[in-house]
Here is the input.
Amino acid sequence: MAQTVVFANRKGGSGKTTLAFNVASLLADSGNRCLLVDMDSQAHATVHAGLEPFKITFGVYEALVNFLESQQAVPDSIISLNTNFSILPANEKLSALELELKDIKNREIVLKDFLVELESEFDYIIIDTPPSLGLVTINALVASQYLVIPVKTDFLSLVGLSQMMNDYYRVNALLNPELKFLGIAPMIFDARTRISKEVLNQLESTFGPNRLFTPIRSDVKVMEASGHALPVHKYCPKCRATQDLKIFVEELARRINNNG
Ligand SMILES: Nc1ncnc2c1ncn2[C@@H]1O[C@H](COP(=O)(O)OP(=O)(O)OP(=O)(O)O)[C@@H](O)[C@H]1O
Ligand SMILES: [Mg+2]
Here is the structure.
C-alpha cells in the first residue's frame, strides 16, 4: 500500500513543487515505485518533469472528471518518466476543477477515492498542491496520510504559517483524522543571512526539533536543474542542495516508518 505524502502551504513560492518533484525522484532512484500527482493548474511539477502541459490531453483534471462520471480510475492518465517514477500530470484546465467539484456530494474525497485503485501499484504517492486552500488542496489533504509544509526561510513566510497550521487542524478534525503533520521543511535556507537563521530558530522553538526537517540550502543549481527538467541529484550530484535533499528523504522515510 502506498504511503501518500502531500506538500502544502498556502504561501506561494515556498518550495512545494521543488521539494515534491525532487523527493519523488530521489525515492524512485532508491528503488521505490513513486507517483507524483500534480494538483496545481500552474503545472510546474509537470514542467519540471520535462512535459509540456498544453500537450497533456488526459491529465489529472480529465482523469478526475472521467472518474466522477464513470467511477473508474483510468490509468491512461499516468505517464512513466523512468523506472519507478511516474507522474499524473496537470494542464491549465485543472483550474476549472474547483467549479466542477463545487456542487457534487462528497466533493472533498474525490481524489482520495480516485487514488484508492492506484495504491497497490506504488510505494509512495507524492502530491504537489497550489498556493491556496480551495477544494483542490482540500482534496489533496484528504487523500493523504502525511503532510509536509515547506516554508521559505524569510519573514513573510512565518506570518502565513499559523494560517496553514489552522488549515491542517481543521482538515484533520473534520475531514481526515488520519492525516499526520510530519513537519516543516525549511526551504531556500541561506546560512549567511541573519534572517534565514532567525526564521530557522523561530521555527525550531515553535515546532521543536522533531517537527523540523533538515533545511534545504539555497542553491542556484536547484533553479538550473528545473530548467533542464532534471532532479537536482541528477543535474548536480555533489552540490549542497543534493546533499540536503538526500538527508531530507532519509528523514522523511524514517518518520513515515515510525508512523509520524
Ligand atoms: N534550495 C533552493 N535554492 C534556490 N532556489 C530554490 C530552492 N528551492 C526552490 N527554489 C526556487 O524557488 C522558487 C519557488 O519554488 P517552488 O516553485 O518550488 O515553490 P512553490 O511553493 O511550489 O510555488 P507555488 O506556490 O507558486 O506553487 C523556484 O524558482 C525554485 O526554483
Ligand atoms: Mg508549486
